[in-house]
Hints:
Blueprint: H1 2-15, H2 18-29, H3 33-54, H4 58-81, H5 83-90, H6 97-109, H7 116-133
Amino acid sequence: MKTRVLIMLMSFLFAYNANYAVNTVSIAKNANDSKVEAKTLELKKTEKNFATKFKDTKLFKKIKNALDDTMLILLIILALLLPPLAVWLKDGKKATTLFWITLILCLLGGGFWYGWFFGGFYGIAILLAILRVLDII
């Protein structure tokens, strides 16, 4: 998913050069549908070649690493607020055993504002979620 978003973003940024704009205008002026379809297929092949070449560049790898770091930070923040949701997202949107454990601990704990004993369950759920987000468990 992240790779597709990156490819779409980069193709949007780099593919709209003057040649691409001229081709798009000439396609719009053509009345014949078969020529339009042929030109559209040619442009799609060009964009696909561009995307495959762009995946190998250093810029793509830097952007991907930056997005991974951002996603990790957001998952850690989410683990502090809603531990079961962070575990669920990290596990690929699957209800794993750790998800159910953190969900039960959160329901038993009720949050930190209900006292130190019951808040301890919520704290354990947060700890488990952070360990899962960081790939320690």
